[in-house]
Each structure stands twice: as C-alpha cells, then as structure tokens.
Design a protein that fits this description.
Blueprint: H1 22-42, H2 50-54, H3 69-80, H4 91-103, E1 108-112, H5 118-130, E2 135-140, H6 143-156, E3 161-164, E4 177-183, H7 185-188, H8 194-204, E5 205-217, H9 223-238, H10 252-265, H11 274-280, E6 286-294, E7 302-310
Parallel strand pairs: 1-2, 1-4, 2-3, 4-5
Antiparallel strand pairs: 5-7, 6-7
C-alpha cells in the first residue's frame, strides 16, 4: 500500500490530478441552478447534519444557520470549479463497484448519503460496465440531494428509491444490502459518529457484502484554510464565468457570496491515519485500502484512502 506520509501535500501549486470532463461539465451546468432552487425549500432544519455542525464552528455569523441550503445550494457550482470532493476524482470506484456487480448483477445497493447525484452517476457507470441490474436505495437526511438523484435517475432511465432518513437512528427495511457505497461520508461525520456509521454499515450488510468508500486524510479546517479556499474560488470563478451561464449577467457577485459563506461554514472531519481506518473497520472480515493523491478541498492537493471492507 502506498504510504500517505510518502505523498506530498501543500497549499501551493496544484498538480493536475483530475480533469472535469465535458459530459460532467455539461450536466452540472444544467443541474447546479436546479439544486440552488431546490435547496431554498427542501433544505430544512435538522437535529443532525451540516447546520448542526456549523453552529459549533468559528465560521461566519452574519445570519443564523437554519438549514443546509448554504451547502447543497452551492455544492454543484463548486463542483464546476473542481473544489469539492466528488466520486469522479477516483477511478477506484469504477473498478471496485463493477467487480462487485459482475459477481452480483442483481445486488441490493445502498447509497449511504449523497451531496448530489455524483455517487449515483458513478454507480451508473459501473452498472453499465458490469451489465448489472441492481436495486438501488438512497438514504440522506436532506431532501435536496435526494431530489438531485431523482432528477438524474429520470434523465437516464434508472429506477431508484430515495428515503429521507437518518441511518444512525432510523430503521432500514430495505436491508440487508450486498453493497453499500458512499463518497467521503466518514469525513462529513464528527469523530464520535464515525465508529457508529461503520458499525451501522456492518449491520446493514448481508454475508458476502461490501462497503466501498473514500476518506480524506488531514487535520483541522483552520481560518487560514477557509480564507484561502474562498480566495481560490473567487480567482477560479473570474476565469470561468462561461461555466456559470445562469449567473453571467452581472450576477457573479451572488456566486462569490455563496462561495464565501460555504468557505466559512464547510468543515471536513478528516481521517488521521491508517490506524484509524483499521480501527473503524475492525469488525469487518476483510479490509483493503490504499492512499492516493486528490485535488483536495481546503488543502490542495490532499491524500485520501480508497477503502473496501467486506463480510465473509
């Protein structure tokens, strides 16, 4: 396994680790404004989620944080700048998911939380590669990413079930699953929730099932990193306004406001090291993981673990 410590990490020049391909760019141009609109009504106050953690952060305080609209309404605009973690950073997903689906073409699949349709689109490509026909259910505590997944599914003729629910607290009648997949969910969760979700994933798997996921490595999201993130978003936006047709008529300042607010609130609860991964997945029978460099968010580039944990 490649050591995370052996890979460079800096806040300077960013190597070319990922290119936003034309097809993803085009669909984001359609869906980003829709997610912004949906977030105004579908992002609501919750007892656990982005807004709960924001209330404990040293972020911006101009207005009360009443929902996760700051997050879901801005997420895909930042994807157009390649500034937020997305499954398309990892070729690993296609190889890992398509191998599982070749062995279990009619697998019962859970997408365990989603920022938008990005994980569903990645699963879709693996389904096509494996020529599978799985059942897909998507759980999230917010309606906005579920609506994004429904939009994608309708567009491409996929059948999915979306459930607004909390996997840590709610029953999941669709279980057991052959495959659970999620991108960076471990780094969304605070430290006390991480072992709770890996244990929950284990409970929801049937024998022979697997969890496929990624998790970024790093430290705290400091004020300096937040300021650098906001500054980089403004710089990239200024050179790519043609990527934002819905904000190109004198409205770029609104996007800058969105980006500044996102930078002030968004917090990754990063993975410390390999030992933490081994501990979190210690109740699984088989665990494989490798470290890889990615474009990163506040720290660019950063390193991430690519993880497959399975039951016998």
């Amino acid at each position: 396994m490649q050591s995370a410590a052996s890979m460079s990490r800096s806040t300077g020049a960013i190597p070319t680790l990922h290119q936003l391909d034309a097809a993803i760019h085009a669909i984001l141009g359609e869906s980003a404004p829709l997610m912004e609109v949906w977030s105004r009504t579908d992002c609501v106050d919750k007892t656990r989620g982005m807004e709960e953690w924001v209330k404990t952060q040293d972020g911006y305080r101009e207005t009360p944080v009443e929902s996760c609209a700051w997050y879901h309404g801005t997420w895909q605009y930042l994807r157009l700048l390649d500034m937020v973690a997305t499954p398309s950073w990892y070729g690993f997903y296609n190889s890992a998911l398509s191998e599982i689906l070749r062995n279990k073409p009619r697998a019962n699949v859970l997408i365990s939380a989603a920022a938008d349709y990005g994980m569903l689109a990645t699963l879709h490509r693996a389904i096509e590669a494996a020529q599978g026909d799985p059942s897909i259910v998507i759980y999230d505590i917010c309606r906005t990413p579920l609506r994004s997944c429904e939009w994608y599914a309708d567009r491409y003729g996929l059948t999915v079930k979306t459930v607004r629910g909390d996997l840590l607290e709610d029953g999941v009648p669709e279980a057991p699953f052959d495959l659970i997949v999620t991108d960076e969910f471990l780094t969304v969760l605070k430290a006390q929730y991480k072992p709770m979700i890996t244990q929950r994933w284990r409970e929801l798997l049937r024998p022979g099932g697997s969890v496929v996921t990624t998790a970024m490595i790093g430290g705290a999201t400091t004020p300096e990193l937040r300021d650098g993130y906001a500054r980089r978003a403004r710089q990239l936006l200024s050179g790519r306004l043609d990527s934002f047709p819905h904000h190109n008529n004198g409205k770029a300042h609104l996007l800058v406001e969105h980006f500044d607010r996102f930078a002030g609130y968004h917090t990754r609860h990063m993975i410390d090291d390999e030992d933490q991964i081994r501990t979190l997945f210690s109740d699984f029978d088989e665990l494989s993981y490798s470290a890889t460099a990615t474009p990163g968010e506040c720290v660019t580039p950063t390193n991430s673990f690519q993880i497959v944990a399975s039951l016998r």
